[in-house]
Amino acid sequence: MNVKLFAPRRIAAALAITITAGATSLCGVSHSAMAQAAPVIVGNQTATATVESVDHEAGMVLLRDKAGNLDTVRVDPDLRAKLPTLHAGDKIGLRIVRTIDAVIAPPGAPMPESTESAAGTRTGPHPHGMMVSFKRERVKVTGVDTSRNQVVFVDPDDITRVVLVRQKPMQEFLKTLKPGDEVDTTVMDAVSFSVLSRLPS
Fold first, then answer.
1. What is the pLDDT of residues 45-82, one digit of tens each?
2. Does the residue 133 lie in any domain?
3. Residue 104 sits in which domain range?
4. Per the structure, how many domains does the chain have?
5. Where are the beta strands (DSSP E) in 32-127?
6. Which listed residue, 83, 87, 109, 143, has the most CB atoms within 10 A of its CB?
7. Distant-in-sequence, close-in-space partners of 70: CB < 8 Å, separation ≥ 6
8. Within a domain: residue 121?
9. Quick one: signal sequence residues (predicted)?
């Protein structure tokens, strides 16, 4: 599942950037550039789905999209209490937004930490919720090719990745990188949903 919090795999797949999976957040942004540029939106999609079944104990929800495809999604235990309870037969509307940004880590800076949060309402005819995750990682740059808009880096799992930076505004930021730089990357996924209709209880 591309969006960890809630988004179905096939719905979220449309948000994928056309660069190596797992490295979508590296844009090569310096401190000065980040002071002038907001995170780049790389996905913004709406969709509808029908709840097929719910395992409340495990926090697992089986969704069917308009094309009839089924996807199982999971909501983390710490977030469930803040979100509306879904039931089989509920039709829900989804909006999924993804942004990316990066900043050169200053020497001695603490390691970045990933965070998740949620909020919502459980009452009214259309209960709704929103979940936001910030996946933060530190990578080490080992090569930069500005003529091809490519960067090579080692990720936290010690895997070397080659990434093509396709966002034009971020290609300028790529020019600020050099081998040896450590970069803190952030992928933000915001998933909001509302119950459009539900079966009578």
1. 899 999 999 998 888 889 999 999 998 888 888 888 88
2. yes
3. 37-45+95-198
4. 1
5. 40-55, 60-65, 70-74, 91-104, 115-121
6. 83
7. 52, 62, 63, 64
8. yes
9. 1-37
Give the amino acid at 31: H
Rg, the chain, Cα only:
19
Determine the Cα–Cα distance for residues 2 and 198; give it in Å rounded to an integer. Answer: 27
Any idea what DSSP says for residue 152? Answer: E
What is the rounded average pLDDT of the residues 102-108? Answer: 89
Q: How confident is the model at residue 200 (pLDDT cuts 50, 70, 90)?
A: confident
**What CA–CA distance (Å, rounded) separates 166 from 148?**
10
DSSP 185-197: EEEEEEEEEEEEE
Confidence category of residue 201, pLDDT binned at 50, 70, 90: low
pLDDT (mean) for 123-141: 92
Separation between Cα atoms, residue 178 and residue 118, nearest integer Å? 37
**Spatial separation of the C-alpha atoms in residues 28 and 16, rounded to whole Å:** 19
The backbone torsions φ and ψ at residue 174, rounded to the nearest 5 degrees and listed phi first, read: -60, -30
Q: Average pLDDT of 163-178?
A: 86
Q: How confident is the model at residue 170 (pLDDT cuts 50, 70, 90)?
A: confident
Residue 118 has pLDDT above 70, yes or no: yes
Q: Give one word for 89, left, alpha or beta, with left for phi > 0 and alpha for psi -120 to 50.
A: left
Dihedral through CA 48, CA 51, CA 55, CA 60, nearest 10?
Answer: -20
Judge contact between 177 and 142, C-beta under 8 A: no
Contact 140, 15 (CB under 8 A): no
The answer to whether residue 170 is domain-embedded is yes
